[in-house]
């Protein structure tokens, strides 16, 4: 059944049609037991960033019901102490071995790392009790099964609820949601298999319980593609490439290191992200004076083509399975040769000095840098357009290309640095960023920035101005409250 | 039969053992008819750089024998006029449709582009006459067949003779060979299938007739791997990445553009290439004074690790078939979106000015730049070591990692520019260079060059000093005369 008998799905207008969404909120928590009929225990397997956020959100949302939330860990996991510190204990039966917790749960939320899923999914599947639903927050396993000729076990529902933000923000904004109803990170949901007819309700209940302000529908394949491509492009890989290339450009133009850092990294994670989050993409250009708009226009039109070319290449390779094969090969190779860290390059040594220049509240002040903005907005728009051409739902496009960046990732990069992110996020994302970040960097240095000397391409600018993304972003903005995205 | 009854194969000492080689030369031409027993016609399919060089060398070498050399072209090929201008004509039966020429030849040398081979090999195979031998100069088709589940047609010998240099140099040095016996481009040979027992002699005869100073033995798979990896690494991809990263480094350190260009691109294609060609790798360091050697050492040891990491990644992906899949995807995509050109980046606009600084004979003068040299030699050594670890024959290692670069490719880059090469060589090489050049560039900028501030790693330097490659290069040097590698 693809509709819900419990929640009131809504139809949202999007460019070219409508989409089905579920508006979330704490007022829906009383409906959770009915939507989770047949679920007595939810097992959250894994205590990484998503695991520890989702387990806590679920437990809080289901407090007072008969549904328990337990955490399952691998034997010898280093996370046991932290899980206990957060109230998941062996004594009260809410912490245990991952296979035991799996065998005992009616909804099994698999939040272990991709490599672990790849290595151990068969034994996890074998441990499932009859009627249990498999829950994923990432489409990786689908890609892996396809590439290796495997499949999900028959007779079990397979659903995905994928928060469009980092684990920490899933928990942090949920806590803000105690005061601002509806604060949270949006999620997509997908029903991949539904033998018993309850998969939609279980997926939506899971998303509501996570605190998602709104939940939009997608497929596991679409989620996988947009997610894996996105992290290689505007969510992480391209951001790294952009800031390195801009830093070098500004240094070569005569800026000292701290100024170059401010104009590139600080400007993207600060004023540009904040402007887009509050007011959309066109507002970035509109915030500039006439000469700034000219610089923006030339940077935008010079960057759009090269950006689109690379996003298309990434997409082809992810869709084809080629990118996944390279991830698998890298995992093997990294067994013997650890991944080098990119945080040692010259620009990152300036981050402390640049941070010191921020105002005392750490708020992103200062004007938008027009060249930086043109480059960044062009990259974001290129990804949007590529996803639109490939047929992704508009909610997914805007969440994966804009909202997740400006509301979750870029604020983290502001607090910790882009290099920190590239060196510390999920393994698959790290590998992807290392592979594709350099492509953006060099294409921008060698093709885009030289072309920015030329007059702007008016057709590309008109296409930007009338791009359906602005309408889609505005619709999405109505569905989520303004929240404080600054990271302490 | 894996030995020759016609040519005197020799055993050459290489690190760790011996290899079988054939020393070439024009004095062997009288043996060609015997080695080519049963071959009345050789069909060279394709008139690209390799096709037009090999067809002419073969014809000249077989002049006065009963063996004719014909060129086969695709219908509507734009090359027909040029082939006729070089004496291959329909009238005397030495120019024709590719399938007709194939059907009429006893040795069919397939020198069309990889994409064309991929698309049309089945009909070419179907046209072969009984007992005909298939000749390749590139292992690509093997990789393609494996990836697509195809195979060579049974009942036909399959051999490879792969000149270790660009087509133009295969012809140019052959012509020099009229005066300097033995001038030419070395080749590898492989016998992949030998149903009739004549494959070895036919392969060696082909190589001798091309003018190869020496021919070393390999396998089609080994050739494929070393070739595809090499063009993504030290033969082209890494060279581009190196010169862009060094150019930026020198500019940021205060050099004007022309000086930065000279210290990076000119120095590699000029004094460094010439020194290695004449005197080997250690001679580059030995040509420096004490303070230069310190700079070299620190650059070398900072670069070696990152270089090795990338070469290993390239190798894994080529061996796994992943890289080939990306080439196929790119071909599809490029049908609608042509490949952008990298020759527009700032450094290439300086090439004319830099060329003007060369001495009037265009000879590479001036001293070796120590930092540039350390980076370049480290990259070359990293590729050598990776190939050695993967078990390639030493002749193949030194030809694919050193000799082909310094005797063929770098002189062409000197005459025309690295950017020209990246924008104009074979499609597969162009795609590979665009994919991997940026990885070298960014890894060097972000990881290697910052590390060059630190003292050199004495263990890495000792490993360089005692590397088996020096002995292998010296053996190879004995087998080829010094030739004029400058390109007019």
Automatic annotation (TrEMBL), chains A, B:
Pfam families in alphabetical order = KARI_C, KARI_N
Q: Where is the KARI N-terminal Rossmann domain?
A: 22-222
Residues that bind Mg(2+) 1: 227, 231
Annotated Mg(2+) 2 binding lies at 227
Q: What's the protein name?
A: Acetohydroxy-acid isomeroreductase
Q: What range(s) does the KARI C-terminal knotted domain occupy?
A: 219-361
Q: Name one GO biological process term.
A: L-valine biosynthetic process
Pathway(s) it belongs to:
Amino-acid biosynthesis; L-valine biosynthesis; L-valine from pyruvate: step 2/4; Amino-acid biosynthesis; L-isoleucine biosynthesis; L-isoleucine from 2-oxobutanoate: step 2/4
The cofactor named in the record is: Mg(2+)
What the record says about family reads: Belongs to the ketol-acid reductoisomerase family.
Keyword Repeat listed? The answer is no
Where does the secretion signal sit in this chain? none
Q: Which UniProt keywords apply?
A: Amino-acid biosynthesis, Branched-chain amino acid biosynthesis, Isomerase, Magnesium, Metal-binding, Oxidoreductase
Q: Which GO terms describe its molecular function?
A: isomerase activity; ketol-acid reductoisomerase activity; metal ion binding
Q: Does the keyword Oxidoreductase apply?
A: yes
């Amino acid at each position: 059944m693809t509709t819900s008998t419990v929640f009131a799905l809504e139809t949202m207008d999007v460019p070219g049609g409508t989409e089905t969404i579920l508006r979330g909120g704490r007022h829906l928590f009383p409906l959770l037991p009915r939507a989770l009929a047949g679920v007595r225990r939810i097992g959250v397997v894994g205590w990484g960033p998503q695991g520890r956020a989702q387990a806590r959100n679920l437990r809080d949302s289901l407090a007072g019901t008969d549904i328990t939330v337990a955490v399952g860990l691998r034997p010898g996991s280093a996370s046991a102490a932290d899980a206990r510190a957060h109230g998941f204990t062996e004594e009260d039966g809410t912490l245990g071995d991952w296979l035991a917790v799996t065998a005992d749960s009616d909804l099994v939320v698999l939040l272990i790392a991709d490599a672990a899923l790849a290595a151990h999914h068969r034994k996890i599947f074998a441990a499932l009790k009859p009627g249990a639903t498999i829950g994923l927050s990432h489409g990786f396993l689908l890609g892996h099964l396809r590439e290796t000729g495997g499949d999900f076990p028959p007779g079990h529902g397979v659903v995905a609820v994928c928060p469009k933000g980092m684990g920490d923000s899933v928990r942090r904004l949920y806590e803000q949601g105690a005061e601002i109803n509806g604060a949270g990170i949006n999620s997509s949901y997908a029903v991949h298999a539904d033998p018993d007819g309850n998969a939609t309700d279980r997926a939506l209940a899971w998303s509501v319980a996570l605190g998602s302000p709104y939940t939009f529908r997608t497929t596991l394949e679409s989620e996988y593609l947009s997610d894996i491509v996105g992290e290689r492009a505007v969510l992480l890989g391209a951001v790294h490439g952009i800031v390195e290339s801009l830093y070098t450009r500004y240094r070569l133009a005569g800026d000292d290191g701290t100024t170059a850092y401010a104009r590139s990294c600080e400007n993207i994670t600060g004023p540009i992200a904040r402007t887009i989050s509050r007011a959309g993409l066109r507002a970035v250009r509109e915030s500039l004076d006439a000469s700034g708009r000219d610089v923006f226009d030339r940077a935008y039109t010079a960057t759009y083509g090269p950006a689109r070319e690379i996003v298309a290449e990434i997409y082809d390779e992810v869709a084809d399975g080629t990118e996944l094969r390279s991830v698998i090969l890298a995992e093997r190779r990294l067994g013997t040769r650890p991944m080098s860290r990119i945080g040692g390059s010259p620009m990152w040594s300036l981050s402390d000095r640049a941070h010191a220049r921020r105002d005392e509240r750490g708020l992103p002040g200062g004007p938008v840098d027009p060249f930086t903005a043109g480059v960044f907005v062009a990259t974001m728009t290129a990804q949007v357009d590529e996803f639109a051409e490939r047929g992704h739902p508009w909610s997914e496009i805007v969440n994966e290309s804009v909202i997740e960046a400006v509301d979750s990732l870029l604020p983290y990069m502001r607090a910790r640095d882009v290099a920190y992110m590239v060196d510390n996020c999920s393994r698959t994302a790290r590998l992807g960023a290392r592979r594709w970040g350099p492509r953006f960097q060099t294409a921008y240095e060698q093709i885009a920035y030289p072309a920015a000397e030329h007059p702007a391409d008016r057709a590309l600018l008109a296409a930007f101005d009338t791009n359906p993304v602005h309408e889609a972003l505005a619709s999405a903005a109505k569905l989520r409250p303004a929240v404080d995205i600054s990271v302490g």
